[in-house]
Amino acid sequence: MTDTVSTPAPAQAKRGFNWRRWRNHKIASPAFQSWASKFPLTRAKSRKEGEKLFDLIAGFVHSQVLWAVVELDLLEATCDAPQTVAVLANRCGVPEVRMEALMRAATALGLFDRVGNGYQLGSLGAALMGVPGVIGMVRHHDVLYRDMADPIAMLRGEKDTELAHFWPYVFGAGAAENPEVAERYSLLMSESQTLVAEETLRTISFDGITHLLDVGGGTGAFLAAVGKACPDLTMTLFDLPAVVPSAEARFAAAGMSGRTTVTAGSFRDDPLPQGADAISLIRVCYDHADDTVRALMAKIHATLPPGGRFIVSEPMSGGDRPERFGDNYFAFYCMAMQTGKVRSQAEIAALMTEAGFADIKMPRTHRPYVTSVVTGCKPGAT
Description:
This protein has helices at 2-6, 9-27, 30-38, 43-71, 74-77, 85-92, 96-108, 123-130, 134-139, 141-147, 151-155, 163-166, 168-171, 179-203, 221-229, 244-253, 290-303, 324-337, 345-355, and strands spanning 83-84, 112-115, 118-121, 211-215, 234-239, 260-264, 278-282, 309-314, 358-361, 372-377. The chain folds into two domains: 41-130, Arc Repressor Mutant, subunit A (Orthogonal Bundle); 151-377, Rossmann fold, CATH 3.40.50.150. The longest helix is centred in the N-terminal third of the chain and has 29 residues, at 43-71. Strands 6-5-4-7-8-10-9 form a seven-stranded mixed sheet, with helices on both faces. By secondary structure, the protein is of the alpha/beta class.
């Protein structure tokens, strides 16, 4: 069976390589590009490919336009009624001619509609406002942009990136000495966790779980969402001391204090709280290196009872089929953070298996650009 599968592979690879080489040389020919743009049967595809190529070339400018729109609060300013360029320019302290350029650029990107002699928020811009956490992500992108200004230096490990200092809370309990940093991180994470929780709840069932421990749960946005969907669930949040007050306040406001315990500690150095029959890691693994994740998964396996469930939910790589969000945005974001990396579902599953988990499942989420999910179970009777 193995020989039958593996024997023809080299020949197939060789044929594939030769075809791609011919194709690449043909498409890379300026003469071919000129012909394809005029020939009736190829000009539509040629135009589409050209637009995609130019989107790649201009992508950095698109991101900067988006950042300017968010920083100047133009989404909110144009939500209810169209505004003239003069009004927006005066509001933002930007010369009219340049505000006109910004609004035209953002309209071309679909964020605004041209209405009369002014501009009003478009459907894509409204969607941007309605997705929790996205505005917060865009607001701190000036840090990522500076790190990506020299991507080759970052790839070679020659650059001391700002993101590595922006998120010190992620990397250890020392950030507990700086509550402002912890609060800034927690605010952004809690906003985005709402969307992650929604997608996770759509993807997997929490039926049969009586007590859920969320490790590295921040201010409790994920647990609060799960607790609302599962009103009989007992919950424990485990994270660094700096986030405990905010988490306790969230659960109190949600009326969940009676069934929720918040325990301070570091999963690197402290034992995990006992008593849960399920443990979740929500947007935790990609913040850390393989050795840290291995140690944490081993600790989770030791903490769970036989039959206990393990849930990992976070943005992931597409693996053998790279995806734009996981393998592009989050991969380089993690690289700039200098400690973690984006992994595929298969890589997470392999780490789970190595830790001793079985019955690994890798369901497909409806919005993989938000999160992907991998679940496992500790072998033994429930």
